[in-house]
Amino acid sequence: MPENRRKIPRMLIPTLIMAVVAVTLLIIGYTRGGGEHIMTLKSAWGILIEVLPLLIFAFIIAGAVQHLLPQEVINRWIGAESGTRGILAGVVTGGFMPGGPVTSLPVAAAIYKSGAGIGTMVAFLTSWSLWAFARLPLEIGIMGWRFTAVRLACTFFMPFVAGLLAHWFFSNVKIM
Question: What residues have CB less than 8 Å from 76, skipping those under 6 apart?
């Protein structure tokens, strides 16, 4: 196999899959004959206009994290050698990270590429998923404070435990 073979961009396959699904759904909408494909495109445009500013700022933050934080700060606070300090930092920042996956995952990827440890990143994403302090008012309003308190009590230690497990078992594995 030749050494100068070009690598396939990481996002190419997921992009192609999404394109096939989107085009298939548009074709289905078109063949129904009720103008559903037009309504689909109008809805998609509205969502794009609403989310685009958030995406732009999330990507700016992701780029800034990679280039503005000094490497020694990253190593000390969230690097693989930071141990439990990095895991705790991941837990806290993940819990307070606003936004959904479209905005939070690029920031997480940038932090990881900047040198964060695997334990820190697992703790970050687990905390972001389970705690999500930004959505607590909505959850309390819909589900009630008792349910929310039970859910938080049951998941309270999970981000830290997940981060520790990742740190112990996968510290030497380069994922990305």
Answer: 82
Give the pLDDT of residue 45.
94
Contact 117, 80 (CB under 8 A): yes
User: Which long-range contacts does 104-108 make (Cβ < 8 Å, 24+ apart)?
Assistant: 104/58, 104/128, 106/58, 106/59, 106/62, 107/58, 107/61, 107/62, 107/65
**Contact predicate 116/78, CB 8 Å:** yes
Q: What is the DSSP string of 124-147?
A: HHHHHHHT-GGGHHHHHHHH-HHH
Q: Model confidence over 43-89: pLDDT tens digits? A: 999 988 988 888 888 888 878 877 787 777 777 778 878 889 999 99
Q: Which residues contact 144 (CB under 8 A, 6 or more apart)?
A: none
pTM tops 0.70: yes
Residue type, 136: L
Residue type, 93: T
Nearest to 84 by CA among 159, 5, 138: 159
pLDDT at position 4, please?
58
